[in-house]
Design goal:
With 141 residues, the protein is mainly α. Helices cover 72% and strands 0% of the residues. The chain has 2 domains: 64 residues; 63 residues. Helix 1 crosses helix 2.
Length: 141
């Protein structure tokens, strides 16, 4: 989340044409409120705050998904795919979002696999969504 905050500040400073250290809060909030990128960055930040709050509250996995998906999709909307217009732009944004979702699922599955393979209790703590019937009884050696 710190990286996203820094990304917001750096982008607003670039849009305002000022160095990051000289950016004032009035300019920051004006750009965030008045530009499409500012609104997108505000939505991303809100989704990340919701995600972290739900994660800290140890909410069920399905409650984390909407906030994670919005934060993830905002990366696609702010990237090259976000520059597309019309139907082609919608297809670019949708395919980029789908690609990010697939990559996230792959990384999560890889982490769960490593947790089972090694029996590492720290990894298993972060893989609580994996049903217990899918966990290996004994770590492979």
């Amino acid at each position: 989340m710190a990286a996203s905050v820094w990304w917001v500040i750096a982008n607003v400073a670039a849009m305002a044409g000022t160095p990051v250290v000289q950016l004032d809060t009035a300019t920051l909030f004006a750009v965030l409120a008045a530009t499409p990128l500012g609104i997108l960055l505000t939505v991303r930040f809100g989704a990340l705050i919701c995600f972290v709050a739900l994660l800290a509250a140890r909410a069920p996995l399905l409650m984390l998904v909407p906030a994670a998906m919005v934060a993830l999709a905002s990366a696609a909307w702010a990237g090259h795919a976000g520059a597309g217009e019309g139907n082609a732009g919608v297809i670019l944004q949708a395919s980029d979002t789908l690609h990010l979702v697939a990559a996230s699922l792959w990384l999560g599955a890889l982490l769960s696999f490593l947790a089972d393979l090694t029996g590492n209790p720290i990894l298993r703590q972060y893989c609580r969504a994996l049903p217990s019937s899918h966990k290996l009884e004994q770590p492979l050696s």
